[in-house]
Queue: 2 jobs
Job 1
Amino acid sequence: MDDLIWASATELAEALKEHEVSAVEIAEALIARADEVDPKIHAYLERTDDRARRDARASDARRAAGEAHSAFDGVPLAYKDIFVTRGVTTTCGSKILEGFVPPYDATVVARCEGAGLPMLGKLNMDEFAMGSSTENSAFGATRNPWDLDAVPGGSSGGSVAAVAAGAAPWAWGTDTGGSIRQPASLCGLVGMKPTYGLVSRYGMIAFASSLDQAGPITRTVEDAAALLNLAAGGDEMDSTCLKEPVPNYLEGIDGGIDGMRIGVVTEFQGEGSQPGVRARVDESLRRLEKLGAQLEEVSMPSFEHGISAYYLIAPAECSSNLARYDGVRYGRRAAGADDIVSMTSRTRAEGFGREVKRRIMLGTYALSAGYYDAYYGKAQKVRTLITRDFERAYERVDLIVTPTSPTTAFKLGERTDDPLAMYLSDVFTVPVNLAGNAAISVPCGLSPDDGLPVGLQIIARSLDEKTMFRAAYAFEQDLGFDERPQL
């Protein structure tokens, strides 16, 4: 069984192609592993074991008939509970959507199902994707498989915990300010945020619409490119989805980085990171040079204001998006109210958690008359400056590298009473979302301080995922990181 639960999705696909294993055997191995580890880590909010078995049997029948839907037909995956799934409960980690069963599939889900990938279940997350630790879930925190007393990161903590623990070979998450890359870093995985608009947001429950993006969480860079291949591309159901032709992200992934120019952000060096994180990132820079890359410092002065701008823009958009949860159309409705005003007020008070309420109030204030220009308007100007800093840097370099997270996984409860400390977990990732660029986090070793994983972030120009994957793959292959948590 170990061979199946720790195999990459690509390895599983190859084994299926060669008839060395069946889709049913893979599904059963992963279901058994989830039975073993999920009581310890609480990665899943809903398991769809019977559906996975049924889909696996159908996949085996297709392969026997020579009619596989894709190269990955029969390789199971799981979804962050922010993607709506027809007939399967979707809560977004919130009491306000407890018991909600959507009548349709998100585009990401539909495309993966169309490729023949069985669904293992829905994964825990910070409520409405608001958090950096997956402690804000209304259904209980997820734990880090590397240290059960530590957080897995967030908001896609359930997705990374399931993959890191061997309970899924890969998963979908979402990234609004670092919610794929930061937890991937904390759990020793590959986590990738595509260019904004590359993957449809249709059926992905909105937090901050100009920032949210779906992306893969995997064990290898090759798997990340493969999963992106399955879902990327235009969608008439999402007006923000780009219509440009989508390349094959696996093509040329092994081309190496000899002669590539890589920028190192001046403002992200020195203080601000744990010594162990800094040590592994410095080693990674030397490794990139050894592989033939030319390193160059790039100054990004606007990044200093990234967190401040993000925590005005994202709450403002969340304030607008979450107005739809009013107890009228779907989701939770408070009982015993005398009129619609008290019903809506009580429904939202009961249904939303503390962090969601905090962000709704922040956003409503930032958008209110007399404060719009002073707060939201200025934040949007900072966003423009960040985009321009990226554009200037890419005139000189092909990619930019930074640490993914300033720390390794912190302890459960350590930052719950200090929102600012929690928000600073995303200091290196937020600028990418504000600019809409592509970025990936790849493991770069274990911290000498505590033995927990450290991630290296590689940032590309918009729609230059292929260059980013090429660099990440070269780094990954040279490093050979194959550590696993001992669960």
Job 2
Amino acid sequence: MGKHSRPGPPNQPSRAVPPLDERDPLAVYHRRRRAPMEVHRKHQPLHGGGGHVRPGEPRVLLEWNGFTYEVAGTACDLAAAQRWANQAAPEARADNR
């Protein structure tokens, strides 16, 4: 096994990035605008640290805008932030890319 080889059978494509649609002339452009790991909404603690530490503290809610994550609001605790992050973002539902 080489230094840069990935685990799994060599005859299967990687599951990390969805395949491009060859019929779409803007497929490469749409690929660049996809959120990292297809995560359109995420949260992080307001004052830094690990996400699982101090679940009662406020969280910053971040949403992918096509280029970067931007602040979408705050949540009072970890449970509220997880509920928000698990809802499908409006752009993610409309794009389905």
